[in-house]
Design goal:
The chain has a six-stranded parallel beta sheet with strand order 3-4-2-1-5-6, sandwiched between helices. The chain has a five-stranded parallel beta sheet with strand order 8-7-12-13-14, with helices on both faces. The chain is of the alpha/beta class. The longest helix has 15 residues. Strand 1, helix 1 and strand 2 form a beta-alpha-beta unit. The protein binds 3-phosphoglyceric acid (3PG) and magnesium ion.
């Protein structure tokens, strides 16, 4: 992947337009409940200010209708939080596409939710050209939105005078490239979560390159079915067993492996208070729900992670939100933390598990991307990255 980086561009006195991903979760009163993405976007902003640029930042927030800005669409809470973190006021500019606002070198403004502009989602070239006229340099630092071809993530990169990747975008691409491009072996991937169908192309792509593929959650149940094992009433996708078997075959043809659980933790109902029973995987009863991997499986996977050179983690291996079924995911999280392997993790559930088990400091790279992280794992070229590469 070759693209121009922000630190290679002369910014003094330039008008710089930063597309960030400030799409943060909010509560009913629109208070920000997690500002990780805002904090991750600060280095680009600080770099541009320090270099003497006039800085404009924008982002989408949610999935609004184009043409209006409802109160819940507004980046106002984000402007306030950036201002607080930078220690200076950050004015929020409305109706900004055709200019009519001022920002001087050394100043920063936030441009209201770019997804409210007509033409944004359609990647409209006319809209992109108007936005290109606002700036001398376009910076895409929005890795979390890099899988979307929208006017601020794609067309603008093609039409701006100069287009480059910000430090967050570059760090994400470097980390993912390191994990999948030239990994230290063995390369172990963990893919958990509910559904095979949403992750089948990721599993197929990873089956071509990883040494061990650990599956968890509903995905693992589908693999148990494919291996001819009983799963009772567990969440699984019976129509996906052929695909699961194809992944098993592709892996074994390469001398690689998908470790199948030897024991599991079951319950008769899906609830936090359900009675957990640990049993060998062959003994799963007709009325059982598999809600976690068992301790023998967890220990052997932990040992495997201890031997890994590189670990890519997306998705929990059990219902970790319920204490009785959290052991498998906790054991793997701690094993990743302790491993000498270089580790990368991403996706909403995964980041929640990482913070729940307190291992964030010991994971080498935690992606800010959800869908973008998954699409990269699928081996797809992200449209925003493709546009930056075209300009390099
Ligand atoms: C995300 O939250 O994954 C990104 O900000 C992308 O948001 P989107 O799925 O609404 O495009
Ligand atoms: Mg929202």
């Amino acid at each position: 992947m070759h693209f121009r980086r922000l630190n290679e561009v002369d910014l003094a006195g330039k008008r710089v337009f930063i597309r960030a991903d400030l799409n943060v979760p909010q509560d009913d009163a629109l208070r920000i409940t997690d500002d990780t993405r805002i904090r991750a976007s600060l280095p680009a902003i600080e770099h541009c200010l320090g270099a003497g640029a006039a800085v404009m930042i924008t982002s989408h927030l949610g999935r609004p209708k184009e043409g209006v800005v409802r109160p819940e669409d507004s980046l106002a809470p984000v402007a306030e939080r950036i201002g607080h973190l930078l220690g200076r006021p950050v004015p929020l500019v409305q109706d900004w596409v055709d200019g009519g606002f001022e920002v001087h070198p050394g100043e920063v403004v936030l441009l209201e939710n770019c997804r409210c502009n007509v033409g944004e989602k359609a990647d409209d070239a006319g809209l992109a050209k108007r936005m290109a006229a606002l700036c001398d340099v376009y910076v895409n630092d929005a890795f979390g939105t890099a899988h979307r071809a929208e006017a601020t993530t794609h067309a603008l990169a093609l039409h701006a005078a100069v287009a480059c990747a910000g430090p967050l975008m570059a760090a994400e691409l470097d980390a993912l490239g390191r994990a999948l491009g030239s990994p230290r072996r063995p390369l172990v991937a963990i893919v958990g979560g509910a559904k095979v169908s949403t992750k089948v192309s990721i599993l197929q792509a990873l089956a071509e390159r990883v040494d061990q593929l650990i599956v968890g959650g509903g995905i693992a149940n589908t693999f148990l079915l494919a291996a001819g094992l009983p799963i009772g009433r567990s969440l699984a996708e019976r129509e996906m067993t052929d695909q699961a078997r194809a992944v098993l075959d592709a892996m074994s043809a390469r001398g690689a492996a998908v470790p199948i659980p030897v024991d599991v933790v079951c319950a008769k109902e899906f609830s936090a208070g359900a009675e957990p029973t640990t049993k060998p995987v062959e003994e799963v009863a007709e009325d059982d729900l598999i809600l976690d991997i068992g301790p023998r499986t967890a220990a052997s996977l932990a040992a495997l992670l201890g031997q890994a050179g590189t670990i890519v983690w997306n998705g929990p291996v059990g219902v970790f939100e319920f204490d009785a079924f959290a052991n498998g995911t906790r054991t793997l999280a701690e094993a990743i933390a302790q491993s000498d392997a270089w580790s990368i993790a991403g996706g909403g559930d995964t980041v929640a598990a990482i913070s729940r088990f307190g291992v964030a400091e010991r994971i080498d790279y935690i992606s800010t991307g959800g869908g973008a992280f998954l699409e990269f794992l699928e081996g797809r070229t992200l449209p925003a990255v493709a546009a930056l590469m075209k300009r390099a």
